[in-house]
Amino acid sequence: MNVDGFGRELAGCTGGKPFAILLLLLFACFVAPQTMMAQEPGSRRSASDLFDTIYDTAIGDSDRIHAYKTLVENPISPPDTKSPRATLESFLVIMRTATDLWVETRDQFFSNSNFFLTSKEKDQLELVSALLGKAALTFDMSAVPAASRERASVEIVLQMQEILDRVYLPALEEVPGVPAGLTQDNREPPERWTIPGTNLTIALQEDGPRAGEYLFTQGTVDRIPSDYDVIKALPIASDRGEDLYSYYIYTPGNLVAPQWYQYILSGPPWLQKTFSGQTVWQWAGMALLLLFSLIGIMLFARWNARRAVPVDPTLRQIRHVINPALLIVIANAFQFLCEEQINITGGLLVLLTTVTSVTIWTAAAWFTYQALQLIYLATSRSSAFNKASLDVSLIRTAFRVVSFLVAIIVLGYGATRIGIPIYGVVAGLGVGGLAIALAAQPTLENFIGGMILYADRIIRVGEFCQFEDMSGTVEEIGIRSTRIRALDRTLIIVSNADLAKRKIINYSQRDVFLFRHKIGLRYETESQVLRAIIADIRNLLEQSESVLEEPLRVRLIEYADFSILIDVYANIASTDLNAFLEVQEDLLISIRSIVENHGAGFAFPSSTVYLSRDQIPEPITDQAVSGHKEPGETSYSASGNSSKT
């Protein structure tokens, strides 16, 4: 007795060899008399009868027999789709061979009561999957997202098989076009042909990679699920006696249910009830998988948050890489278990595949960015990395930009995998890029400012610079801002756009250091001594190996308020500040020794105060005044009036 995965007896399943019918027909081609009668025009047949008729009409035609044999024995050969009849015949032949082998392998597995499939059974199921995939090539599946196309195509061909097993098909002579296996026909097939009594249409593909082939149209693919839901209650006209599509979607595993499914069958009957295309146990299993996945992510996030942050930047970056990698693993495991074990199908499968694909490809873009940053850190820390000849900050910025662009490319490719056309992705990136450019104008301005700093070589990491009202050592030139360490060890962050507009004095790019000092001698210094001091200082500078020959001058320049000023001007051949300060220190001490050896001294601000006693002037008398009177003028009276005579 043969039983299906539901534990039901199969009345019409013989369990014969997968190619027994084909071999018998090949034998009949050479030894049996050709006594069969052609179908009468206008007669109607079931899919099972039509399958038998296909082989009956091929008897005596070795080319057609070879073509049918190739269809079922060579999994990688394409179906014959040069006419509506060839497409329909290819589908029927492939599906009949696939379903017979499928049922035989399933019944053999359950009869042996093995917990795992044998290698032979695995090979047979792989052949069944390949044949189902080949049958799907007779459909235009271009509108189905690539991420779910493989599983969706299996459901489509199984539903189509069940529909054809419940309707009556026209005689082969009434199907337009050349039969499968023939290459010449005087009849010109129409561009479209619809199976009578249905809306299932086979049409000529006018463009695309399969132009010139007759395929079941996209509209047919879209309506097959609804047509199956309407017609599945009708009796099956074939000799299988069971609905293989129902067995496929309501049982776990891939094509053959595992042995543990018997425990579900022996459980409460309500576990087998269907809701929105899935059984109750499938809904429960998917919910548990989702719960365990979320718990795993939360536990890892909590454990990761409690760990000490590594001091080594490479180890910190490794932690950043692990996070998206773990998310990819969990999402793939969740999708695999839902598809291959719980066997979620239909619209829920499309939704689940879309959500997991979005998660996986988003995490993949995140992982790509972090992985490229890790490569940069590992490369920059390598002994082979020549830090003297490469601008480390520029390379770091370039890695960030490249990492971001590669992550965007990965994200765009993932968008095409979930069904978004490549043109839509490119257009979306263009529009999105314009929107981002408008919204992030300050950020782009800072980025361009950073590129200007790099291109002009104005500043580099490690250089000491003065930026108008601030100064410090450049620590990092990023995409948006530059970090400067001030002399008091405070960190100054300036946007690149603002920094590019500032007046910048780069002390680290000096080729020499200027040695210039004004020496003030006392006014008591004699002229001969002054000349000797100037000559000795000039000789000191000329004999020093650190002082350049030009320019070099030591001159008396001014008699100042409290000193005689000597200007000492020279360049020190050094680019290191510490080395310059050491040379300057030696020169200043030597100049002091010269001044002291000549008995002179340095002037300092002073002033001379002269003290003297002034004589008090005599009082003015009338006698003194009378000598200055004009004729006729009288003396002033006590009241202040004067008179003339």
Automatic annotation (TrEMBL):
Coiled coil spans: none
Principal subcellular localization: membrane
Signal peptide region: none
Top-rank lineage group of the source organism: Bacteria
UniProt subcellular location: Cell membrane
Topology in membrane: Multi-pass membrane protein
Cross-referenced SUPFAM superfamilies: Mechanosensitive channel protein MscS (YggB), C-terminal domain (SSF82689), Mechanosensitive channel protein MscS (YggB), transmembrane region (SSF82861), Sm-like ribonucleoproteins (SSF50182)
An MF annotation (GO) of this entry: mechanosensitive monoatomic ion channel activity
Gene Ontology terms: cellular component: plasma membrane
Segments of skewed composition (Polar residues): 634-645
Pfam families: MS_channel_2nd
Region (Disordered): 622-645
Transmembrane segments annotated in the record for this chain: 280-301, 321-337, 349-372, 393-414, 420-440
The Mechanosensitive ion channel MscS domain, residue ranges: 444-508
Keywords in alphabetical order: Cell membrane, Membrane, Transmembrane, Transmembrane helix
Family statement drawn from the similarity comment of this UniProt entry: Belongs to the MscS (TC 1.A.23) family.
PANTHER family in UniProt: LOW CONDUCTANCE MECHANOSENSITIVE CHANNEL YNAI, OW CONDUCTANCE MECHANOSENSITIVE CHANNEL
The protein, known as: MscS family membrane protein
